[in-house]
Write a structure and sequence with these properties.
The protein is an alpha/beta fold. The protein has helices spanning 15-32, 48-56, 107-119, 192-203, 210-219, 223-234, 240-252, 269-281, 296-310, 318-332, 335-341, 354-366; strands at 2-4, 7-13, 39-44, 63-71, 81-85, 95-103, 123-131, 144-148, 154-155, 171-174, 182-185, 206-209, 260-263, 288-293, 345-349. Bound molecules: adenosine monophosphate. Adenosine monophosphate binds at residues 188, 210-211, 214, 231-232, 235-238, 243, 264-265, 267, 271, 314, 324.
């Protein structure tokens, strides 16, 4: 698996399969153009690998020319094509083989055909390495096809994703992300745990509350519990290395999940970075941070009330609660910006009935 920009791609067509397909095209072109002197008109940029492979194997004399066209920005669906670099010298009276990397909707080739007709060429044929019959909307024939593929988005052998991937010798296709991963965010007492219990059922997601995992470990007096206890009881954050390792272990225990609700994690910038990197290694990522926005005054009262029954030492003492808010303000609140920069921050009013708040959260999560 490889990463290009923000997307992940998996191996799809090997270099051997590519060269077999190229040879198939070469045999037919050599046969059809015996004794003639065609012009190979390569469509830049993507077709240069394919063109170079077939032209080098052409038996006889030929010439080469290049053309570059582009779809008008924003109007791709209308198929408006502009010529960035036209044919030079004139192709009048010539037998032209248009060489493309991939024929998709067919708009580009249609535009090139028009240019060739204006040029009054003697004949033209189309050779493409890849052809997507399911996407093709035109009715002109594609004469030489290396390989037919379905509607996959592919890179490699000249084809790119936003400039990258052309140099790959293997064809990779876009790997669909399988998981829905949500960071449920908000200050202590905002209601993350309560909402997570509802959301995990509704979306069939695995809920990981780092606070709950720590408390479980403290109760069972594990090594991790011993380590976390002193920090937690004061309302301090547990050190990043400890928390990140624990989080990774929890995720790896649930590799088959449809996705995760991260509750109480990340709480620092380095936790957020570690989470992104860790998910990226699996070809996954965070869909969005959904934040419950509640004013602090309301929260202190809520936490003290919860402390009457929760048995949590960090809920029972106002100074510990204030310290948790201080930790939140100084270390955690900045994560809003971290996710905003990725266009992944979604604030939700966290005041109201549990049901109303769930509804607001679902509206956001449904769109992620
Ligand atoms: P919570 O149940 O989310 O309010 O967490 C309770 C306590 O567990 C926090 O005050 C921290 O001491 C510790 N904790 C939970 N999650 C983290 C985290 N991501 N990073 C550091 N400490 C954490």
């Amino acid at each position: 698996m490889i990463q290009l920009h923000d997307l992940f791609f998996e191996e799809f067509i090997s270099a051997t399969q590519i060269s077999q397909a190229v040879n198939g095209v070469v045999v037919r072109i050599n046969d059809d153009y015996k004794g003639r002197k065609p012009v190979f008109l390569t469509v830049l940029n993507g077709a240069f690998f394919f063109a170079s492979d077939i032209i080098r194997k052409f038996d006889g004399n030929c010439e080469m020319s290049f053309i570059k066209v582009a779809s008008y920005k924003g109007t791709q669906s209308t198929g408006n094509i502009s010529t960035v670099m036209g044919v030079e010298p004139s192709l009048k009276g010539r037998d032209v083989i248009i060489v493309e990397d991939i024929v998709d909707s067919g708009n580009t080739i249609e535009a090139i055909i028009k240019i060739l007709q204006q040029e009054e060429v003697n004949s033209y044929k189309i050779a493409t390495m890849f052809y997507k019959p399911l996407a093709f909307t035109k009715n002109y024939p594609i004469d030489y096809v290396g390989m037919e593929i379905e509607n996959d988005f592919i890179v490699g052998y000249g084809l790119d994703y936003d400039g990258l991937g052309r140099n790959l010798n293997t064809i990779y296709k876009l790997k669909p992300r399988k998981m829905k991963n949500i960071v449920l965010f908000g200050p202590p007492g905002a209601g993350k745990g309560t909402q997570a219990d509802v959301l995990k059922e509704k979306y069939n997601l695995k809920h990981i509350s780092t606070g709950d995992v720590f408390r479980y470990n403290i109760k069972n007096e594990t090594e991790l519990g011993m380590l976390a206890k002193s920090f937690m009881n004061k309302g301090d954050l547990v050190p990043d290395e400890v928390t990140i390792d624990m989080l990774k272990t929890e995720v790896d225990k649930n590799v088959d999940a449809n996705g995760f609700i991260f509750d109480g994690f990340p709480r620092t910038n380095s936790q957020a970075k570690a989470l992104d990197e860790f998910l990226a290694e699996k070809g996954e990522g965070i869909n969005g941070m959904v934040a419950l926005e509640v004013a602090e005054d309301l929260l202190v009262a809520r936490l003290l009330k919860r402390g009457e029954t929760s048995g949590r030492p960090d809920d029972q003492d106002e100074s510990k609660i204030r310290n948790r808010f201080n930790e939140y303000e100084t270390k955690t609140a900045v994560l809003k910006e971290y996710y905003q920069e990725q266009n992944k921050y979604f604030g939700v009013d966290g005041v109201g009935s549990i049901e109303d708040i769930t509804e607001r959260l679902c509206e956001v999560i449904d769109g992620l």
